Description:
Chain A has 212 residues and is an all-alpha fold. Helix content of chain A is 73%, strand content 0%.
Amino acid sequence: MHISTNPWVWIxxxxxxxxxxxxxxxxxxxxxxxxxxxxxxxxxxxVVLWYNSIIPRLWNPLAHGTSPSRxxxxxxxxxxxxxxxxxxxxxxxxxxxxxxFSVGAYAGFSIxxxxxxxxxxxxxxxxxxxxxxxxxxxxxxxxxxxxxVITTITYFYFSKHHKGLLGKSARTGIVFLMLAFGASxxxxxxxxxxxxxxxxxxxxxxxxxxxx
Amino acid sequence: xxxxxxLVIAFTMGLLMMIQYFIPHPISQKFYKIMxxxxxxxxxxxxxxxxxxxxxxxxxxKIKRRKEGWWASVxxxxxxFFMLLAGFxxxxxxGIGHFIYKYFNFxxxxxxxxxxxxxxxxxxxxxxxASAAFRAFKARTMEATLLLVTATIVMLGRVPLGASMWKxxxxxxxxxxxxxxxxxxxxxxxxxxxxxxxxxxKIILGIERSYLGGE
Lengths: 212, 215
């Protein structure tokens, strides 16, 4: 047993235990660690924003750049500055301009991209081709995929009552959805368990030195 | 000016960004590059102000009124202060900067406070997921049974224990993930995609205005 002498390791271990104390019940130790985490996250976000966005995208081109087009950057800065209107009751409506600019641009940008990635790509991957039927097993698997996609979509079709053929199709869609949710759930549990193992390793190896 | 002009801006920007995708001309490509890689990112920087404002207002209010657990809000501010100190303090010239660099090193703060807290917080969910699953997935219906069985197979198939129980299990898991799971994911993706396109169209045409303040 080799207990760590590094004060940072002790801090990390105490904070880890403080979070796990929530398993018993909500308590001041957990609240302390939770709020510290929240504060650190916000501070971390601000530092990362400063070094990764403000310095390279704004400060460096404007202060050290030589291209005359760098002054165009003053336009998004001016639009962005309107956000500060929120601090005044009289001018809070100014926030609508940068919001409308960003939301409108992202909405326009997302339409063709979504068509490409979420619709066309998915449909082309589902359509049965000769290569997909190369072996009997592959053919059955791809046929299941085809049926699964169609029935899942029909389950989300709410413009008509789920009766008759549509009802049967929607019911089959539920089977596929449950299989997918089960797989996603299994994956999520595995990810959380691996994080738990990581924390246990830290406590028992890095901090207490019980395991090698 | 307050209502119509923002809608005109959203319409114009939406239309321009949509059209540029279909025009493979250098001007159109430059427009896309400037918008996506510069302007929209620069504008979004200013939106962080909202987040900081809400955080500050909420916790200052809690401390001022001495609400239950107000001391935790002080801890949150201490966390922000330490991280900012570690991030920017070492740039202070002279002894103070050196002291901060030595004792409030940004990497140490990240590796021994931020990262462990984050990992522990998420690992905590392992316990709650397990207890929630026990309550929710009691095999009462065919759907619940299916979900439970699939989750168990996937979990077992991804660890050495599953392969030692039956060699074919990892292959079964792979098949489940590649075909029935992918089928449902594709169905969901197509549905979500259609929903996104419809919402984007509503924003561009000014039918959806809630983002401008609940109109």
